[in-house]
Amino acid sequence: MSDSEERGAVAPPVIEEPHADPTGRTPTKRAQVRRLLEDRIDNDLHPGDAIPSERALVAALGVSRVTVRQAIADLVDVGRLERIHGKGTYVTGPRVDSQLHLTSFSREMKARGLLPETKVLAANQESAVPEVADRLRLPTGRTVIRVERLRLADGTPMAHEIGFYPAVLFPGLLEQRLDALYDVFANRYGLVVSSGSQTVLAEAADASHARILQIPRKAPLLVQERVTRCGETVMEFSTSWYRADRYRLHMRITPTGTLG
To answer: For the chain, where are the E strands, in sequence order?
Structure first.
């Protein structure tokens, strides 16, 4: 049992034998445990806080471990809790509904009332491999700047991002702050993003993404590949791996032609 699981834990009330509610239906012990945990999440805990361990809940509530495990699984399934292997079960952080539009991560999080944070994991110059060169419209082997970042909202890891930028467009970029690149591009280099294209696909988290995003291996990810331009100049090719339990895409659909 980890220390974080029990720190600040307050025992919920003991589960009593089920009684019929006004509708005539009798809530199961599993449902009672689930409601008690939901009340605790809503009133006493914050995103990132650990809930008591299964053993502690069994002792406090007087129910079986199977009942506790099922109630927790229900809340994991609906996104209220998340399990982190080897650590415990935690209250989930923010979930973001995003439109498919061209904006920076920081602005998008602020627009939703969340505190954005960016951690630069790596930044260096390297020779462009064929895929990167093709996306940036450069000859293979041309020097590009690679920036790897972790994006967080209210302290919760949201996305792992790797971007490539033509070194010829951004001399001295590695000496700049890299947490808000679009602002640096505009203010220092006079290059403002004017258009872009984005592709979204699904992927399962490998060991590296699981470690960086603090999720289980094979957890679902939304992968966004983006190419951005200033006029006709391609200035960025980036890939972002978003936690599917924290990010949901919305798009407006309008008909073209005749609907059959």
So the answer is: 81-84, 88-91, 96-99, 116-127, 143-153, 156-166, 195-204, 220-230, 233-243, 247-250
Q: Are 210 and 221 in contact (CB under 8 A)?
A: no
Instruction: State the pTM of this model.
Output: 0.62
Q: Which of 11-15, 131-135, 226-230 has the lowest mean pLDDT?
A: 11-15
Indicate whether 119 pLDDT > 60: yes
- CATH number of the domain at 96-250, out of 2.102.10.10, 3.40.50.2000, 3.90.226.10, 3.40.1410.10? 3.40.1410.10
Counting residues of the chain whose pLDDT is more than 90, the rounded percentage is 38
pLDDT at residue 112 greater than cutoff 60? no
CA nearest to 239, candidates 178, 166, 169, 160: 160
Ramachandran region, residue 81 (left: φ > 0; alpha: ψ -120 to 50; beta: rest): beta
- Ramachandran angles phi, psi of 118, nearest 5°: -125, 130
Give me the sheet containing 233-243, strands edge to edge: 116-127, 143-153, 156-166, 233-243, 220-230, 195-204
Distance CA(126)–CA(164), nearest Å, equals 10
What Å distances lie between residue 89 and 23, 30, 37, CA to CA?
33, 17, 12
Q: How many residues are present in the chain?
A: 260
What CATH number belongs to 3-91?
1.10.10.10
